[in-house]
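Lab notes, practical 5.
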Amino acid sequence: MPAVSYSDALNEALERMNDLGYERGQGVDLANHGPMGAEALALLGQGDEVARWVERYRRAMAHHEPPAARFSIDPADESSWRPALGEFHRAGDWEALFARQLSDDPWREVLARWWPRLLPGLFAGLTHGLIRTAHAVRGLYAAGDAPTALQLNELARGLAYWAARYAELPGTPRLRGPYSLSAAVAALPRTAADSPMGPAAVRRRLDTLDRQPAYGEALEWLAPEQAPRLLSEMTAQFADVYLGHPEVAPVPLIHGVTAPAAARIVLPHLPHPLYEPTLAALWQVHAAFLVAFTTDRRDEGTEAWRSEGAEPPPLDELGARAAEHGDEHVIKFTEACLREYALRPDPRYPAAAFAAQRRITPLDEGGGIKGIRA
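Output from the prediction step:
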């Protein structure tokens, strides 16, 4: 039988997951990763595995019900749409708005219209608003002039999740400083923990970012740089950060790579004046990750990761191993690392992907989770 194409695998997955809400879990609010994981898996050349993976993913954890639209949001009236930012109970209203706009206007126009409005809330859902939007954009670009209704709806949902979980971080980031990215990361102070670094401690740090040492000043440390180069610096640096912190819960720091890798997907479809504000917002997110999740530099900038386990397998095996592993973060992270490696062959990318495959608990064949998942 011929291999399932990217387009067929993606659209079948979107149809199978059309009934899932934006988040999942009992007593927690975890983002729905299904469409993102399926799209990344298809791009990894694992189209034949997508349908099976979707069923495993659905069984792993119950999703919330899709939200219903209740009140109309007027995109032309700032007093209508701005108060709805960050109001998760308005997710259905946001989805209805974006679905309506995408039926009336080309998707690139809708994206460019809303990008600067949503960008200050980039931290939304631990950057999953941006990331889900980017996976949807990649599918639409691949579809050319014939996107499916499912693909347009997925972009509406990515933007809606971003808007509904919109979360501004304190301070205004600007690329006006003297530091390279690696120098800025090295210079940012990390504070020792006075209690175990569980979710509550991380939340406290995020809630007090403006009182953390040098955080505010750091938002203007980074020097201007061309977008493709700075995005590569960001993904390589945070692959290094991921490798250097095996003591940190294995999922959050992944987004230091997947967020700028997602921005790389979207930026070619946006006006050039939006590039620098996007890069500045990404640096602000990176500074927040470092301050909130790490207590020192640990093994950043070293090759201590080489002693953690075996050498990564050949590149063409990493995608297949991600599919077998099954965890949605592992799949997305592996795809992002391999894509970034193709642009900049830095060994930290495959090493970080392989480390995540070892650190994160896989899904079992029945769709459940083996052991305790971070």
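Observations recorded by the TA: DSSP finds 17 helices and two strands in the chain. Residues 365-374 have pLDDT under 50 and may be disordered.
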